Amino acid sequence: MSHRVVEAVLGPIETRIIEEAPKPEDKPPPPPPKIETPPPFVPPPEVAIEIPMDAAPTTAIRQTTQQAPVAQPPPAPVAAPVARTAPKSDARRPLTQPEYPPSSRRAGETGTVILEVYVLENGRAGDVRVKTSSGFPKLDEAAVREVKRSWRLVPGTENGKPVPMWGQFAVTFKLTD
User: Where do the segments described as Disordered lie (predicted)?
Assistant: First the structure.
């Protein structure tokens, strides 16, 4: 019964055979270019030129002066050595530990960041640079942010006077939980 339904719906199928169009014949490739062979190597002729030796060149001093050489000025006096002390942490205001980034804590990231801190005369951090990374950028950023935000240091001195100076400080991140 389904066979009759298909015949009624589709009707007779007509087919035609289509001839293939003839393919154009490929042209042969052009002949390779002719390469000229280089001429054989002929060495240049050897030519010897003789130069007459009238007089040998001299390197002796021919003229002298009777003026005394100008005396050098005495060396500048050596400045007294400058007594310098590097910046350090203040025992009255201990350095605070930065907040451990939560994503770093979850990932188990630990390490030590070595920071270069430009300590101003008043003990505040003027600029902070990462000298040696902990290997994790989030830990490095947390350490830099904490130093800029809350650290107070004893400034470096020259001859007893506080002066702005670079100092190195380490911040260690370790999981204790």
Answer: 1-108
